Amino acid sequence: MPQPIVQLKNLDITYNIGKENEYKATFNVSMEIYPEEYVAFFGPSGCGKSTLFYSILGILAPSAGQLLVKGENPYSFSPEKMVKFQTSTIGIIYQAFYLINSISVLDNIALPLIFHSAAPGWRKKHALSLLRRFGIEQHAEKYPDNLSGGQSQRVSVARALVNNPDILLADEPTGNLDSISTKQVMDALEEINQKDKKTVIMITHNAAQLKYCHRVFYMKDGRVERVVSNPEKKQIAKIDRQKMIVSEIDTLSKLYPYSTPIELKVKSLVNYLTQEMPIEQVQKLERSVQLVLERKINKQQFFASLQAEQKNGGVGLSPSAARTAVRETEKIMLQSEEVQRYRRRLEQNNFFEREGDLVRKISGFLAVEAGGNLNPTQSKRLKELVHQRVSGLIRQEEFAALAALPLPNGGIGLEQKTAQRLTYYFEKIICQGIETKGHGH
């Protein structure tokens, strides 16, 4: 296991210490970023992601805690060593490009090499090779103000790479670009991470860009709220696969990146309860369900809110529909507690045999949902699948496929529609049973 290339330990950063406008931007932030990782700091404006960015860059000293880059504290460096650190260890891509309009594109890229005493001929040759790589060689002799936004950002990427840094910091790199240029720049960053083996740390507001990353640090109010690993990427940081489960929460977090974990759980449960409801009614139902999940109203109050007229602040369901919604919500919440108990034991390394009581209970819920007519072989295989899914050893699609796979082939042998319905229901239970602190830590 490699050593972290960037390590933050209980990092606090406060602006204007001792003054009337003193402001604490980050609180007790700890994280480890590994060589060749591609990570993102993601969150709303003012959440502290830019503060961390500039601290890693070496221009914003921590007020408390520790920051290490390649095992060293850059704020202990002499001025000369700090310059070398900022020009050799780290490359920077800014949203606003920051190209010098009075010199050519080629000279913009070659400029950082001057501070390392590189020979003029080699500087030009190396800069041209980077221009060629990013498809902008024909613009070498142009001035930056004659380039499009996408071309300017690709020049900025080339300039960031010219000194072959270990770490690439990208500050909202596509914030000023159209969709086509955005894809070109994002593809270039992915190539730099995969081909050049560079560590990429990106700040972004764009949830669509999170799929490029190995891990995402979700930030809010100066804190890292949760860390989520991308299941589609081979992880570099050490992740205990049995302590990580990719559930509907991960999908919803991409669609609603600024929602809290409890809000994502609400959306999952409401999605299960609604079919063709108009959006206004769905929103009222979400509010009622959130109160239930937060234990702020009881079963009777929930039922009353569901059948109350919309003009009186209720959801406006018929009494029978309200009873069904209360029953299904209560059932999923109760059943999800078994998943939560199972996951807690797993995360505390208090693991037990697959045929344990909790696996039997969860499997029993699903057997009823499947029709309740499973033979002993089907029941045994369902227990095995439940164990594997709740432990994070298989994905949702694999669970569904194995549930529908014929018995002779090692599956449960359910009809396709039954297998899909069972999987859909099980994911709702898992979603409610997953701890809201996030995963992938």
Shape: elongated
Remind me, CATH topology of the largest domain? Rossmann fold
The name of the CATH architecture of the largest domain is 3-Layer(aba) Sandwich
Question: Which CATH class of the largest domain applies here?
Answer: Alpha Beta
Work out the radius of gyration.
Answer: 26 Å
Helix and strand succession?
A: EEEHEHEHHHEHEEEHHHHHHHHH
Helix content: 40-55%
In spatial order, strands of the major sheet run: 5-6-7-3-8-9
Describe the biggest sheet? 6 strands, mixed
Instruction: Give the name of the CATH superfamily of the largest domain.
Output: P-loop containing nucleotide triphosphate hydrolases
The total number of structural domains is 2
Written overview of the protein:
The chain has about 450 residues and is α/β, with parallel strands linked by helices. It is built from 15 helices and 9 strands. The strands form 2 sheets. A 6-stranded mixed β-sheet has the order 5-6-7-3-8-9, with helices on both faces. A 3-stranded antiparallel β-sheet has the order 2-1-4, with helices on one face. Residues about 350-355 and about 435-440 have low confidence and may be disordered.
